[in-house]
Amino acid sequence: MTMNNKALNAYRNVHIASAVPYADGIQLIQMLFDGLIETLSAVEGEIERKNIAEKCRFLNRATSIVYGLQDSLDFKKGGDLARNLSDLYEYMVRRLMHANLHNDVDAIREVKSLVNEIRSAWELLPTLLKDQPPVALAS
Predict the structure, then answer these.
(1) Residue 135 counted as domain residue
(2) Residue 60: which domain range?
(3) Do the domain assignments include residue 91?
(4) Number of domains in the chain
(5) 37 and 119 in contact (C-beta within 8 Å)?
(6) Which CATH number fits the domain that encloses residue 94?
(7) What does pTM read for this prediction?
(8) Which parts of the chain register pLDDT below 50?
(9) In this structure, are residues 63 and 94 in contact, taking their beta carbons and an 8 Å threshold?
(10) Residue 94 CA to chain centroid, in angstroms?
(11) DSSP state, 1?
């Protein structure tokens, strides 16, 4: 079972217990962003400490999370926004590869800044959706 499937299954268990119909997708994405930000911070530290093995391990985790976010996009419902996010995620992966090859902390910080911006937008969704009927959000 992959890391994303484990996270999804763990979250679904919480979701069932809390019975919040629209929160599972939003909260899962927020959890992925949180994990990505923490992992990028770890990469920064490992680059600064010149710990190549751990840097690579954390970069692999960060890249997997970005691909997980990209895989979660719904191009049919999301249209241009989903395509733009997909392009942004591809850019992030390229910057992570650059950071790996060149031990470039600034590239990691750039990706972390982009992730923080997207994460901030996701934080607003529960507020924006709270007045929506659960049936419309659970699809």
Answers:
(1) no
(2) 24-130
(3) yes
(4) 1
(5) yes
(6) 1.20.120.340
(7) 0.75
(8) 1-3, 8, 10-23, 135-139
(9) no
(10) 15
(11) -
